[in-house]
Amino acid sequence: MPQSYIERILRARVYDVATETPLTPAKLLSKRLGNQVWLKREDLQPVFSFKLRGAYNKLKHLSAEVRGRGVIAASAGNHAQGVSMGAARLGCDATIVMPRTTPAIKVDAVRGWGAKAVLHGDSFDEANAYAQGLTAERGLTFLHPFDDPDVIAGQGTIGMEILRQHPEPPAAIFVPVGGGGLIAGVAAYVKYVHPQVRIIGVEPEDAPTLHAAMAAGRRVVLDEVGLFADGVAVRQIGKETFRIARQTVDDVVLVSTDAICAAIKDIFDDTRGIAEPAGALALAGLKHWVAREGAEGLSLVAIHSGANVNFDRLRHVAERAELGERREALFAVGIPERPGSFLGFCKALGKRQITEFNYRYADHQDAHVFAGVQLTGGADERTELVQRLETKGFSVLDMSDNEAAKLHVRYMVGGHAAGVEDERLIRFEFPERPGALLNFLTGLGKRWNISLFHYRNHGAAYGRVLMGIQVPDAQRAELTDLLTQLGYRFWDESDNPAYRLFASAGGLT
Question: DSSP character for 220?
Answer without folding.
Answer: -
